[in-house]
Amino acid sequence: MGVDAAITVMIVDDHPLVRGAVRDAVSAPDVTIVAEAATAEDALDIAPRIKPDILLLDIELPGMSGVQLLRELVPRLPMTKIIMLTVSGSDRDVLDAVRNGAAGYLTKDVTPESLARAVRAAHDGELVMPRRLAARLVLRLARRNAADPSVDTGLVERLTGRERDVLRLLADGLSDRDIATALTISTRTVETHVSSVLHKLGVRNRAEAARRYREGD
To answer: What is the reported pTM?
Structure first.
């Protein structure tokens, strides 16, 4: 592959050192870093304009979760392969990312060589993910498919994107005030979303809602 046909990559991470390490790991004659962003807002501004082949996205960003940003970017960048690159290896985060259109999910303990290979593999249409995460994902999906068919396992999917963000943070143990700060919305708005989440999930309290989320309903 010549330089003119180089794979274009954008990095979205709020830590400059991480962006530098990722840049060093994937830069090559056939891979070009075309943009970087430290915030979701910058990513939403830059990515649709430059349309990179690959976008490496942290799952924890100030003001907006990586999964929320993923949902915003996927319909705007139908040809871009978005790979989550994060410290979180939780089954829930992996499942959320794949459901919302991620082309891969890598944890930040990935070696530079493996990261470079993943970029090329994603560009070729492969779903890139460590074997241990892929195995757990398949097992989780298999267990859900084998669940009692009389139980509705799609309730969480009926929530709006913002309601899922609130539920995810609620399940992490955050208070309404902390959720409001994380999502840059008012506490009153968080309370409204929590009330709607409880109603849609058919549960009585926050603890039951968190349990539903962690169990992957």
So the answer is: 0.64
